[in-house]
Design goal:
Oligomer: single chain
Low-confidence stretches: 1-38
Radius of gyration: 21 Å
Number of strands: 23
Order of helices and strands: HEEEEHEEEEEEEEEEEHEEEHEEEEHE
Strand order of the largest sheet: 1-10-11-12-13
Shape: globular
Number of helices: 5
Largest sheet: 5 strands, antiparallel
Number of domains: 3
Length: 344
């Protein structure tokens, strides 16, 4: 049995340790912000990016800051390894996967892997694709990576614009805004990638739809702490990390929204309704998927549910390109968009 003095001493030590961690986190954040301000200028980028034409841009380059890592410091997966979905290993049934199906070739990319790599360059049913996930925006989008008839790969620049990942193509080293799929600096500025319909759903839902599907596994299981969330508590924060922009939306900035082109619905309104029909669009919500950005262990994250977005085409329901980012992302990148909330 511990004495009261010993207990107080332990609590004091834990309190001091917590304060040190908080101060260290604040210092690191400040250092990144200062560094980002210092190098938000192509003069500091040209040595690392000699092939990128910074004279050709569609944005103010001062909006781009360092996220901390250097070029490819967050390594893309370029030779993905898959196993049968019937052999998921330690992946929990309710863990989130970004799923994709092209011509019968169905694949699932666990967010516990994407959260550490952000981009997977893959070929699905002979279609070159880039599977992307930006944790700071909770944006998961699949792109066709054929540009003007040429296949390219994508990597991470280590830069952010309004908290969203800035990617680069390895063909011209142009820089791309992940959420928009649009080149914002370099030779291909103004080019927009084709988005391919995908879902973020629980592993068990993917397995039920595609029992013969394949599941991405780490190339090197010891490379990262797969299964853990390095952004613990992020989707409960009051303000997005490293976000430089305004926000005056009707819901908190880190509320999830379901985006279809220039319209969005709050996840809470869809959860409450269960089903929303809007023109020929049908949006549904069902429980049973962990948030990847809540608990430090992804399989213990709170339930954010499963969203399906489809459109009636000749009487048949087909999946529609959509995303489920945070509200601030829709606000900043689709400023004239319509956000439906509280049944509005």
């Amino acid at each position: 049995m511990r004495s009261s003095g010993m207990t107080k001493l332990m609590h004091a030590d834990e309190s001091c340790a917590s304060r040190r961690l908080i101060l260290a986190a604040m210092a690191a954040t400040l250092a990144v912000l200062i560094a980002g301000t210092a190098i938000a200028d192509p003069r500091y980028w040209r040595a690392e990016w000699p092939e990128t034409d910074f004279d050709n841009t569609s944005i103010d380059l001062s909006e781009i800051i360092s996220g901390g890592p250097p070029k490819d410091g967050i390594p893309s997966i370029d030779d993905p390894v898959f196993v049968s979905v019937s052999d998921p290993g330690d992946l929990a049934p309710t863990e989130p996967v970004l799923s994709l199906e092209i011509d019968g070739d169905a694949r699932a990319y666990p967010l516990q892997i994407l959260i550490w790599h952000e981009i997977v360059n893959d070929v699905v049913a002979e279609q070159p694709v880039a599977v992307t996930y930006c944790p700071l925006c909770n944006s998961g989008i699949v792109f066709d990576r054929v540009i003007d008839g040429q296949v390219t790969e994508f990597g991470t620049t280590g830069k952010l614009r309004r908290s969203d990942m800035v990617m680069y193509d390895r063909l011209t080293e142009s820089w791309w805004q992940q959420f928009l799929g649009e080149a914002i600096a370099g030779e291909l500025t103004g080019t927009v990638l084709e988005m391919i319909p995908s879902r973020v759903e629980s592993l068990e839902r993917f397995a039920a739809r595609h029992p013969d599907g394949r599941l991405l596994v780490p190339t090197n299981p010891r490379m990262r702490n797969y299964g853990r969330n390095p952004y613990a508590g992020y989707d409960g924060a009051s303000w997005p990390f490293l976000y430089r922009g305004d926000y005056d939306g009707p819901v908190p900035p880190l509320s999830r929204v379901v985006v279809v082109e220039d319209e969005a619905w709050t996840l809470e309104s869809l959860r409450s309704a269960g089903r929303i029909e809007h023109g020929d669009l049908i949006l549904t919500w069902e429980e049973g998927q962990n948030s990847a950005l809540d608990n430090g262990i992804i399989s213990q994250g709170r339930d954010v549910g499963n969203v399906v977005v489809q459109r009636r085409v000749n009487g048949v329901l087909e999946d529609v390109v959509h995303d489920i980012p945070f509200a601030f992302v829709f606000h900043t990148f689709v400023p004239d968009g319509v956000l439906h909330h509280d049944g509005v």
